[in-house]
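Mods, move this if it's the wrong board.
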Amino acid sequence: MSRAVEESNRRMLRARDAIDLGYEKPLDIPTLARIACVSEAHFIRTFRATFGETPHRYLQRRRVERAMFMLRETDRSVTEICLDVGFRSLGTFSRTFTDIVGEPPTTYRWRAADLRVVPACFAKAWTRPSSFGEAGCQTGS
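Not the wrong board. Structure tokens:
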């Protein structure tokens, strides 16, 4: 890996870390581009090339991941969770959640109760909205 690619990756990681820390806030591309020290258009292209998804889609996925945790671990209403993770509309939240997870939030919550009887590493691997499908634990030796 060249030094320029390594430096670009570091800059994109800093911007991704900023998204992770402020997932409940609106996405601010100009600020993220400044964090990465690149123009806005270059930031979006480079972020996608580095992580395989746009900054907006990454933010949506992080919000949904957080919502999944809250649906499993709390008894808060879906509307409260929707607002807490940064969505402004319950309809948008439900549509995005269903698109990423494959089922609506209420169905996920109902089904997630069954996941408490399996090891956490398997539950995480099974429920994580990721295209990589990696298990979160090791088996065997």
